[in-house]
Amino acid sequence: MKVIPVIDIMGGVAVHAKGGHRDHYQPIKSQLCDTSNPIDLALAFKKRFGFEELYIADLDSIMGIGSNTDMLRRIYESSNMKIIVDSGVNDVKKARELLQAGVEKIIVGTETLTSYAPLKSIPKFVNYEHVIVSIDVKDGKILSKSKEIVRLSPEGLAKRLELMGIKEIIVLDLSRVGRELGVNVDLIRGVLKSVSIHTIIGGGIGNIDDIILLRDMGVSGVLVSTALHNSKIKKRDLLRL
Fold it and tell me: What pTM did the predictor assign?
């Protein structure tokens, strides 16, 4: 099971994502690092925990108000970590630009999709190995600009993706992000029963017990941010895994 640290970038700085209310996000205050510089945080994750993989959400790009692609490139060059990125990708051109910037895997998130088509075209043209589809959920329902996608249940979409050849998915519960409320067990169990592909969970991780619970359920990986920054999860905790 993989534990993957998260950095949310807005306006070139790392911010504390909480509940999906992006207009209220503030620069991160971390016990791991004195700054909210994403490069410093990436290096702190690597030095303190030994992480080799990093999830980055480019919130400016997701919201359509800018881009932090140059910052992604600098993080990759400085840390030499495997970078997986959600930057609101909805076409092949943008996906290829991210790969050229050193990104290891591109996340195609349902939140920013206006139709179902990119879920088919992007993996086909940039290689399935480099694509993760994020099923973005809020209050138990899929979040998307696509009417076709929002009509589906998380379990139903997960099954469709598996049949399409997608090898890895994320179930991201935006309503729980940064709030340390614990994970939505019923949602996760439903998805895991529907598919046998690798499934990463994000949103609600408050301590190591949440991670152990997910591991025992059969989850492939977890995304963690707040609990690392406030030291509720330490390196010695991760060694228990």
Answer: 0.93
